[in-house]
Amino acid sequence: MTPIFNKATHVRYFLRCLRTHLPTAYSSNDSQRMTLAFFILCALDILGALEDNTTEEERSSYIDWIYHCQHPNGGFRGFTGGDMGHQRADSNAQWDPANIAATYFALLNLTLLGDGLGRVNKRACLAWLKDLQLPDGTFGEALGINGQVGEGQDMRFCYCAAVISWILDEDQETKVQLDLDGLLRFFEASQTYEGGFANGPFHEAHGTPIVASAAG
After folding, report:
1. Bigger pLDDT: 186 or 109?
2. pTM for the complete prediction?
3. What span, in angstroms and rounded, lies between the C-alpha atoms of 183 and 170?
4. Contact, 192 vs 207, CB < 8 A?
5. In 3-state terms, the chain is what percent helix, strand and coil (to 5)?
6. How far apart are CA 130 and CA 176, in angstroms?
7. Residue 170 Cα distances to 56, 72, 115, 144, 204, angstroms
8. Which of 77, 142, 164, 177 could link 99 by a cystine bridge, Cβ 3.0 to 4.6 Å?
């Protein structure tokens, strides 16, 4: 019997995830809502069902939620739970950071929803992105206490940074000079003897870093 792709069932599943509660297994990933939203929206878009099965009002509300996740110092949060509003202060800022993956997915989500990125604070976002770049050319995930960069030497963050820069760095007014030479040196140092790319120098090559380094 030839397998049949049941498009309607997939569409119903992703619409359920978009409009109501996610399955129980995802409850521990509440802080990753921006990432989950991307996979839901992208799936519906691939299936040709995003615009036909959502109203303009719904898409507008999704766009507003994404902008509510925009951080005042640049970048985007993964969800609104860290937004402390008027209670935000230097003493608690570490608990409300933007992160590079959420920013990457937020920009893609806005694009999928047909937003023109007019409300994105491009200058602040690119300046924040520059602060995430480490001396070795790689990018960290988020800024911590006293501007300390968290993580680093991760090909996936480098890919996110390259895409964010490409989407936002469209004119001289928002021009922020990243250390592209340092980033390229990291890519070259991460190539292994097999010909693939690892997540960093002296690591094992596998699929994800190859895609990230090639795209970056």
Report:
1. 109
2. 0.87
3. 20
4. no
5. 60, 5, 35
6. 7
7. 27, 21, 16, 28, 35
8. 142
